[in-house]
Every structure is written in C-alpha cells, then in structure tokens.
Specification:
The chain is α/β, with parallel strands linked by helices and about 400 residues long. The protein has helices at about 25-35, 65-70, 80-90, 105-110, 115-120, 145-150, 170-195, 205-210, 215-220, 260-265, 280-285, 290-300, 305-315, 325-330, 335, 380-385, 390-400; strands spanning about 15-20, 40-45, 55-60, 60, 75, 95-100, 125-130, 200-205, 240-245, 250-255, 320, 340-345, 350-355. The strands form four sheets. A six-stranded parallel β-sheet has the order 5-2-1-6-7-8. It has a three-stranded antiparallel β-sheet with strand order 9-10-11, covered by helices on one side. The chain has a two-stranded antiparallel sheet with strand order 3-4. The radius of gyration is 25 Å and the shape is elongated.
Length: about 400
C-alpha cells in the first residue's frame, strides 16, 4: 500500500466504502485516507465523479480531483445494474464505514441504504452527507455549497451593509460538512469499540454552517429581536477597532478588545489617545469608529510596507495580520513551517501544491505518498479479492457493469 508518515496509522485497518463525489463527501474520506484508512472510492460509469472534469486541468487531469482523492482505491461500478449492487453487497462484510452524499432516498432505492447494509454488517457505520439532511421538509432537495450558505444565514451576514448578500469565496459549506462527518465518524468508531453498535450519521451542509454562528442566533434570541444580524462590511460591529484597514501595500486586519486596547495607543505613537473621550470605552470607539479608522490608516500610511506595519504592531502585542491571497500563502513562512502547503507529484499533472493536513498530532504529521486513482483502476484487484475469476470480471466489463479509463 502507500508509504505513510509515522503517525498516519490512526485509522489503519479501517476500510471505507466511499460513494461520494464533488467536495463535501470526498473531503471527509480524504482526511480518513490521510490517517491510514483504506478508502475505496466507488464511481459511476462512464465518467465517474464530476470533479474529474473540474477546471483547471492539465493533461485532462483535474487538480481539484487529485487534491481530494489521493491515496484512495477506485472501483467503477454501475449501481443501476443489479450485478453492480451485488458487488457492493459482497464488499460490505469487509467494510467498517460507508460514506455517501447522494440526495436522500437514492441509497434506499438501490437497496444499499443503512438498514440494508447493516442487515449484512450489523456494526457498520454510515455517514450520509446532504444539503438539508435525511429528514425534514427540505430533505428531498438537492443542494450545492452556495445554496447552503444562503439557507444557513452565512450569506446574509457577508458583504457590505448596503449591498447584496455575498457568498464566501471558498467551498465553506462543502468542507464544513466534510469535516463534521469526519469528526462524527471518529466518535462513532469509538462508540462501536465500546458497545459493538453501528451508527447512521446524518450530516447536513446547512446544519454544519448554521452551527458556526457565534453571535447571530443567540443575540437575536436573548434581546427579543432587538439585535438584528446584518452584513457588517469590513468592520466587526461589537468591537472597535476591529476589521480591515488600508495599509501601504494591501489590507491589514487588527482587533483590539478591552484587554489589548492599551497596547494600541503607544504602538501608534499617540499615547494621548488613551485620554481622548472619543476612544475611552469600547462603546465610544464604536460610536466614533470612522474617526478611529482614519487615525489608524493615516498612521499605517507612514510606513514603507505592510510587513513593517505588522512587525511594529506585533512588537507592541497588538493582534493583527495581513489579508493574504491563497497564492501569497503558498510561500508564507507560517504555512510552510506548519506543513500547511505541500508539494505532491501526480503522474499526469506533475508536481504542484495542495493544502496540507489540518490536524497536528504529536509526532510526525501524516503525509501519504500517494496519487489519486484513475477511474476503475482497482476493479480487477478488488473483484479478485471477492472471489471473481478473470472470466467473470471480463464478463462484467463486457456487460457494462464495471468500467475503467486511463484518466
């Protein structure tokens, strides 16, 4: 199998049947593969996971697909064919975890839902990832990341106060759902160790995003609606100064609460501002936010670079940071030293950069030396493990039950 880092054995011996596509499901099973699980990605002929076509591509190979599917085995089987379903049933006794992100009801119609599979493997864990969950008035609707951002209220609080709601410029809903599923699976495996029981996990993209509201839900509730969550633009309404400020080169974020504000005035070289009634309390600083912003940005303009501003603020222990583009982050010392950017080699794309593993454990950070699979590249090996002989495998291919492609 794959060469792995010393600490990539958390899930060694765990076998995962991965019916997922796009981002929400694959981001979950990618984390499991990184921790040593054997992940079998099940794809549908003739094209497999639509993410294989995601631009940009090089030599007809998608970097997005590679990023989310490195280290997985691949079985391309037609689940609309009874012989394909029979293959899944034969695999089930050897599987610990199933992850799927079909619209609710699809797995049941195919006869491979949680009830059907636990009849074969009672202690099976299944994680079902969907836009609106397996139950509720919207459960039958399909969803994508932006739709989940809209329903969850994340879009409502993102953007300028007088402008339209805006989506976050990353796959927040998909990835949050994937990480929530990853966490829940770990706890379900722990429960199985203690009780021997399987678990069906229901992960909703909307629920995962709604869960991240730190203030909007409870503040509106406890004030009987007096607090109205709204888009805040570049400033954080409960605190001043807190937001993004124009620096010499780009944008700089800083936030000074009651425990940091006394560090700001000497950092600005204007200790007398501590006695300015406009800035005496957080409430008065919020009231005079525009004036304080002008003071801070005028001070920043006296520096030659953003780095000089950031270093000066850091010396005075003022919480701050640059607004980096993802492209800038690739070469930033923080991401490099933390292992959050890494170079991977792909036989078709060549060497390129992907985000690193986001959890730091004691010891060596997991870093599998693996590539993303071609469509159906493990068909023969996996079917042979189930007892299919060469003639039977050829017949399944001829009948269109299984398929493979070199990319």
């Amino acid at each position: 199998m794959n060469a792995r880092g010393a600490d990539a054995d958390f899930l060694a011996g765990i076998r995962v049947l991965d019916f997922t596509q796009y981002l929400a499901g694959p981001s979950c099973t990618r984390l499991m593969a990184e921790l040593g699980a054997e992940v079998i990605k099940v794809e549908q002929p003739p094209f497999g996971d639509p993410m294989r076509a995601q631009a940009p591509r090089k030599n007809r190979r998608s970097g997005s697909f590679v990023q989310q599917n490195r280290g997985k085995r691949d079985l391309c089987v037609d689940l609309r064919h009874e012989a394909g379903i029979d293959i899944i049933r034969k695999l089930t006794p050897s599987v610990d975890v199933v992850v799927e992100n079909f619209t609710p009801g699809v797995m049941a119609r195919r006869g491979i839902d949680f009830d059907a599979l636990t009849a074969i493997k009672p202690d099976l864990i299944m994680a079902s990832v969907s836009g609106f969950g397996q139950t509720g008035p919207l459960s039958d609707r399909s969803s994508f990341d932006f739709i989940a951002q809209a329903y969850s209220g994340v879009m409502h609080v993102t953007g300028d106060p007088d402008g339209p709601p805006m989506f976050v410029g990353a796959g927040l809903g998909d990835t949050m759902a994937g990480v929530h599923a990853f966490a829940a699976i770990g706890h379900a495996l722990f429960r199985r160790e203690r009780t021997g029981h399987g678990t069906h996990i229901d992960i909703s993209m909307v629920d995962s995003l709604f869960h991240i509201h730190e203030n909007s839900v409870q503040a509106s509730s406890i004030t009987d609606g007096e607090y109205v969550p709204m888009r805040e633009g570049r400033h954080y309404s409960p605190v001043a100064p807190a937001g993004s400020f124009k620096g010499p080169d780009g944008w700089i974020v800083l936030l000074c609460g009651v425990n940091q504000i006394d560090n700001l005035w000497p950092a600005l070289g204007q200790p007398e501002l501590a006695d300015d009634p406009r800035f005496a309390t957080n409430e008065t600083r919020i009231e005079h936010r525009d004036e304080l912003t002008d003071v801070i940005e005028a001070w920043m303009a006296t520096f030659d670079s953003d780095d000089a501003v950031l270093n000066h603020l850091a010396e005075h222990r003022v919480p701050c940071g640059p607004v980096l583009s993802p492209a800038d982050a690739i070469d930033h010392a923080y991401f490099v030293e933390r292992g959050m950017v890494r170079q991977v080699d792909d036989p078709l794309i060549g060497q390129f950069t992907i985000p690193g593993f986001p959890f730091a454990f004691s010891g060596e950070r997991p870093n599998i030396d693996a590539v993303a699979p071609n469509l159906g590249q493990d068909n023969t090996e996996l079917l042979a493990e189930l007892g299919f002989d060469a003639d039977s495998i050829t017949q399944l291919s001829d009948d269109g039950v299984i398929a493979e492609k070199p990319r």
